[in-house]
Design goal:
globular, 259 residues, alpha/beta, two-stranded antiparallel ribbon, 25% strand, Rossmann fold, eight-stranded mixed β-sheet
Length: 259
């Protein structure tokens, strides 16, 4: 029998839904999940991959809230109507247009705006703030914590883009985040698949060498059984063992610095 469409699970311990907040002169949105338990909780800005705030990203926002965090996944495609650009001819053009629409110059201020929104909430502890980023958003998160914010206590990046290809940039020039790595402002964990071709092994090695040269507080985790985007069960690159393992390792890292 074909799978029947079902409503989402009722997560009794959290609340979840869309919120709007200002970013510069624009109004943007984010997917928010928060514990129902009273008191002030640590808070996380989650930065999504180039597909946007997908059902999986909403689910992971909720799962993190179930672990005691107030979590806001900022929609970096708010100005595009909540989706990455759709006028593409092939997968490569799709990725290129998504990266350009969510370029660092716009997305980092949006992440700051998301943090500002969280700090208006009575259930957020302003001294326990962190961030989690994935793929494209993981790269933006790297740029954010490499000297562009002093407000975060911890960061976790899953297969973050270290160098942005020139075709993914509005100026057609590559964007290398490694030269700013020495400005890291909080403990950072980065997790990669050893078979990742979207974030080349040379890029991973270069970031690790920079971290060692500067004595940076970066925890590098490698998953030999995985490639890129291994956490999302909706896409072919999903690897359940790596997804489960990486999720728990990320939670442990966040807990160690925020709880």
């Amino acid at each position: 029998m074909a799978n029947l469409p079902l409503p989402p699970l009722w997560r009794k311990t959290i609340t979840a839904g869309w919120v709007e907040f200002p970013s510069g002169s624009d109004t943007i949105r984010g997917y928010l999940a928060a514990p129902r338990a009273p008191g002030k909780h640590p808070a996380i800005v989650m930065v999504h991959e180039n597909l946007g705030v997908t059902a999986h990203r909403q689910e992971m926002t909720e799962r993190l809230a179930e672990r005691g965090y107030v979590v806001l996944t900022v929609d970096l495609f708010s100005r595009e109507g909540g989706q990455p650009p759709q006028d593409f001819k092939d997968p490569e053009e799709r990725r290129s247009k998504a990266f350009i629409a969510a370029r660092d110059e716009q997305s980092i201020p949006d992440c700051d705006a998301g943090l500002d929104y969280l700090l208006t909430r009575n259930d957020v502890d302003p001294d326990r703030l962190g961030t989690v980023g994935y793929c494209m958003g993981g790269g933006t998160m790297l740029a954010w914590v490499f000297g562009r914010t002093e407000r975060l206590k911890v960061a976790v990046g899953y297969y973050p883009n270290i160098i942005v290809f020139p075709e993914y940039r509005p100026d057609d020039k590559p964007l290398n985040r490694i030269p700013d790595a020495h400005k890291l402002t909080c403990p950072l964990q980065v997790q990669f698949g050893e078979q990742d071709t979207a974030v080349p092994q040379d890029d991973q090695a270069a970031l690790k060498a920079e971290a060692e040269a500067w004595g940076l507080d970066i925890d590098f985790v490698s998953h030999p059984d995985a490639g890129h985007a291994f956490q999302d069960p909706a896409i072919p690159s999903y690897i359940k063992t790596a997804a489960d393992r990486s999720w728990e390792m990320g939670i442990d890292f966040l807990d160690a610095h925020l709880k």
